[in-house]
Amino acid sequence: MQKRKLKPVVKNILFLSIIVVIAGIVLAVFTLNNNDKKKTEEKPNIEQKEEVKEEPVEEEVEEPTEKRMSIVMTGDALLHGAVFMDAYKNGKYDFTSMFTLIAPIVKKYDLKYYNQETIIGGGAPAHYPRFNSPKAIGDNLTSIGFNLVSLANNHTLDRGESGLKHSVNYWKTKATVVTAGSYGSKAERDEVPVYERNGIKYAFLAYTTCTNGLSTPAGKSYYLNVYSNALAKKDIDQAKKNGAEVIIVAMHWGVEYTHKPNNEQKTIAKYLSSQGVNLIIGSHPHVIQPIEYVGETLVVYSLGNLISAQRVMGIEKIIGLLVGTDIVVKDGKVTFENTGFELLYTYYTASNRNFKVYPFSKLTTKVLSNHASLNKKYRKIVDPGGKFNGTKEQTS
């Protein structure tokens, strides 16, 4: 039996159907492969993932803040009769002309210290041995800038209780002046105020080791700070509690008319240094003594006299010191920079007239013929190792 041949139309339909089926299969396979590829890209192999290293973040470290204040120190305002009588003109006392040569130096500093050796006790001025000074000396020295004054020395009790009261009340009228060592009440004595200059908080304390045999009235020891380790420690601890970063102590100590610190001075200096005192300013010997470090404490053992009429006792009694330094506070640590000094000479005539304090740098042979050799001699006493020449133009 012969096979029937498919008609051309049927053949075409069958062929197209096969083509459609094949195309469908191909499309399905392509789609499946493409989806698998996307899934693979969306979920990479963790083991093959490249590690991304994070750059370390540097913490910003604040530089310690540096604060500084400068201080200049000079010695005793020791007003013998010859000094205050020379200042008496036209019915009043005026010491201004005696200090015109040091005034420009003093004004360069933030803190300016001196020791009021002879009490401003009210009433008529008096000479040795129980001194009393006219208030003009305080007026004139503060007018040229002195703003840090010690009131603790062996002549603080010279005029008794009334003199002490007058002195305390006088200094209270000087609003810009910081004093220490003599007070009007126990509360004032125990307060230990803290002051601020150039962002530095500082305390100022003052003591004397001698009183010339005189005593404060019973129950009124606050009139004068007589040194003891216990009293100093109490005040230093209170100063720290009150926030002081720098502690300055004025010490009236030692033996008169000797250039070498004695054992008592050295012992006290070591103790005060151990308690955290930063600067010790010494007076009483009436002649100059060395500057040195005791631990990290800068110690000026004796500044000598700022002004006096003691030439008859030897020229060394009318040669004093002007010491300048920068107190630097950084990261809680106190250091000193630019420490230097100038020798001072008190000039006056044979008839006790025309008193004037000269920096040695201003002396001429007409004023003091051998000033060059004396300068060399006394600088070695103050600074035998040549450590304290200073780098700022502060004491010249």
Low-confidence stretches: 1-7, 32-52, 391-396
| CATH topology-level name | Purple Acid Phosphatase, chain A, domain 2
CATH superfamily: Metallo-dependent phosphatases
Total beta strand runs:
16
Count every helix, treating DSSP H or I runs of 4 or more residues as helices.
9
Strand content: 15-25%
Mean pLDDT: 89
Tell me the span between the first and last alpha carbons.
144 Å
Q: Helix-strand pattern, N to C?
A: HEHEEHEHEHEHEEHEHEEEEEEEH
Q: What's the CATH class, please?
A: Alpha Beta
Biggest beta-sheet profile: 8 strands, mixed
CATH hierarchy: architecture: 4-Layer Sandwich
The coarse overall form would be: globular
Helix content: 25-40%
Main structural class:
alpha/beta
Domain module tally: 1
Give the C-alpha Rg: 41 Å
